[in-house]
Amino acid sequence: MLLEELKPGLRISGLIPAEAVTVIAAQWHGANAVELTYKTAGGGLDQRVVFRKDEDRLSVAHSGSRAFDAPAGDFRLAAEAQRISLAGLFDPMLAVATSDVQPLPHQIRAVYGELMPRTPLRFLLADDPGAGKTIMAGLYIKELLLRDDVKQCLIVAPGGLVDQWQDELFFKFGLRFDLLTNQLIDSQPHVNVFETHPLLIARMDQLSRNEHLKAQLQETEWDLIVVDEAHRMGAHYFGGKVEKTKRFQLGEMLGEITRHLLLMTATPHSGKEEDFQLFLTLLDRDRFEGRQKRSADVSGIMRRMIKEDLLTFQGRKLFPERIAETVPYELTALEYDLYEDVTHYVREGMNRAGRIGGKRRNTVGFALTVLQRRLASSPEAIYRSLVRRTERLERKRQEILHGTYRESMPAIDPADFDTEELNAEEIEELEEELLDAATAAQTVEELDVELTELRALVKTAQRVREAGTDRKWTELSALLRDHALVTDANGLPRKLIIFTEHRDTLRYLQDKIGSLLGRPGAVRAIHGGVRRAERRQITEEFTKNRDVRILLATDAAGEGLNLQAAHLMVNYDLPWNPNRIEQRFGRIHRIGQEEVCRLWNLVASNTREGEVFTRLLEKLDQMRETYGGKVFDVLGQAFAETPLRDLLLDAIQYGEQPAVRNRMYEVIDSTVGDGLKGLLDERALAVERFSDADLRALRAAMDEARARRLQPHDIASAFKDAFTRLGGRIVAREQGRHEIAHVPQRVRSAGNGPIATSYDHVTFDLDRVRPDARTHVDLLVPGHPLHDAVMTETIRTFEGALNRGTVLVSAALEEPHLLVGVVEEVADATGASVARRFAYVYVDSRGTVRPAGPAPYLDCADAPDGASADIACGLPWLADAEAKATSWIIANRLPAYLAEVQPRRLAELVRTRELVTKRLTSERERLFLDAAAASEKERRGEKPKESSASLHRKAAGLDVRLRKRLALLDQQQSMSTKPPQILAAALVLSVPGLSSRK
């Protein structure tokens, strides 16, 4: 054809192989070149310069936009690979169907009701401990991966939880995430490790404390970042200034480099509203700017459900009751003498440290409080601690005499232990490091005085140890006989967990309980010094082996463990951070627990600390009668203003003074009485609950998803066909399982994750994944690297068949139809996709369009040898059939789709606009008032805390931020539908029509 014939609206062939395109514009450049703007069959726009020498290969497309000459088998294979790859666009819960989980109502609502509709996501998931937040995050991650919305995902978690995250994502969701280890970093010394590992799990403090890693991370962009235990990313007001921790600064940076940000914590609120709102700035700085005392509006940005309100799909309570009992006991006369002597030593040491002042005072004070807590733990713990301390101070004395002593104690901030700036393992390590060495004594003379006192304490402790009259052990052994050494209703031995704070006590109890049971192997112990792999092995033994009855653990070992195999727990040592009580209880009070959970707290009532704990536990028990187990969930928040640690230290130093004791009791009564009631009432207003209607709606949504779901036989059939065509070998083994003998290199190269060269056991049916624990069976479904690589390579290899089109026949049609596969999409004015979906439609000779379902080609047969693409030439209506399909979708389907997607998104944006405007305007006005006051002081010659010029600059900065945010919200609120994108087409003939042609 001549170049002069190229006009807008004309369909031409020859520009792109096996595809007709529509000319949008033709601009001449001289007499022999035309710049063409055209639309492809898939709906994309492109440009190309065509020269006079190209005229011979161009022609007017008389058979519509396709050649319809592709082999039907190739078309069907590529169409199935395409359908499965886009399954997330028509199966609303694809991750549920392809994961080894059975999600509960609150998890379904969190993922598909709260997280999925928000694009981009900025959200805080704050359900109670044990509610399965990792499951919710895993479903969300996999859903976005399956929908091709996420390719790079980073998970940031405390060090003790990263292995658990990796295991859960692999075994439950088939997702292979790499751990950011030193070995991984060192293996690529000249490469940004974050750019080469798109699915990565990193330790929170590894990132926050390593400036080089942080700099590398800041250079990258992520689709999704998930932060577990996010409350550790805290900031605090100190005077009028914001003190940002390194973890908080990391949180700020993470928000800048990701599209979706999901924060997760069971304890989002420390009790200080201003700190909570600072934490929320990680999600939306504009919405929570400034320091305000009134409660923050967290609608649309946070979801919190508490254990007692969680239900099964049948409407039953998900969690059993929680009961805590205090077991008071009195020290023997010998034990009490030791208690008084050590307490006197600790008090005198604190007084000496107080005279030193500065950071050293805090460090010495910390070491002495650890000594006091070990005194309360066990005779073994205090004896061992006193012996080690004596030995360390004697070495220090010798080093001073020989001039070789070098001070090396780290500085300690006691507040870190209640704000969880340090995790349990770090605290345990610090205790071991400082307890034996930190002292106020600096000279040989001072050390001699302290060593004389210590040697006397060691003798007293040894007498107590050798007397064998450990009252605390007596109480524990009675509990064991009454509860742990008997069988349950099914005749199985009961399992019990004992928490202690100190390794010396842990080893002591392991020997004592082993002797009591007569079987040392029935007792296992884990602490911060036990390697993570060994922890997992011990946990597995305790969970699965009926002969392992007792688990001893410290808090460092207890972080992240799921121990619902037990429902009985003892706090042998009560933690000074009340948050730890709930964290410990949460190890057994988890999803899957069916028994009433019981906790016994052992307290020496005739000690100063014991009096504080006894009063606290009595008030808790009174509150539990009204509020049930919920009292444990907010106990840590209740002590935000006056930390429990402070009360216990006052008790040690001044507890014999009636006025101090009365003041402590008043604080406990108001904190645990009125304070807990207020927190629980406020919390009740902020949490979500399920109604019967909610459960019915969720069950209906699950049923609808099931009806639209890809079935295992569809996935299996498509995979086997595609894999074989790509050169792979797969053979059937036992029922429902297969062996893959060879994975071709081309398939391995197409994958985003690790793909083996062969697999001993694979299945396409979730029910056959792990019928026994001896072998791991790979579930080959969307999301598995091998499955996805096969689908990707199949589409790449055979997508030409989708573009060229093929000829099929159907007995269900009375006349020829054009079948087209279409993606519909809603986007906002920023260009971001808000929602997408995929389906097929039929177009007949009259231009009538109707839905055809998700895979109509599966109900069609290949055209017989007599039917070729020449048939298309005899059907002139094909020339504009795709255009009519596009017009019909634009006129009839897209308005309804926009109307379905737009309202919820719009309501969220309108609410955000209102809150951001209110907050930034309020903060700006406050700054102007402060500036006026500062200006008045400056006029009088006084120096204000901050200059009026600085305050005016800050107010002006807020104005700029408000304008920018409102402009962005304007763009996000402007939503529209994109033109439909046609991904595949086929000519489907009726059987009668085919017969008459023959």
UniProtKB/TrEMBL annotation:
Keyword set, alphabetical order: ATP-binding, Coiled coil, Helicase, Hydrolase, Nucleotide-binding
One MF term in the entry's GO annotations: helicase activity
Domain Helicase ATP-binding: 114-286
CDD domains: DEXDc_RapA (cd18011), SF2_C_SNF (cd18793)
Ranges of Basic and acidic residues composition bias in the record: 935-946
Region (Disordered): 934-953
InterPro entries, A to Z: DEXDc_RapA (IPR057342), Helicase_ATP-bd (IPR014001), Helicase_C-like (IPR001650), P-loop_NTPase (IPR027417), SNF2-like_sf (IPR038718), SNF2/RAD54-like_C (IPR049730), SNF2_N (IPR000330)
Residues forming coiled coils: 427-464
Superkingdom in the source lineage: Bacteria
PROSITE patterns for this protein: HELICASE_ATP_BIND_1, HELICASE_CTER
Name of the protein in its database record: Helicase-related protein
Helicase C-terminal domain boundaries: 479-648
Species in which this protein is naturally found: Streptomyces atrovirens
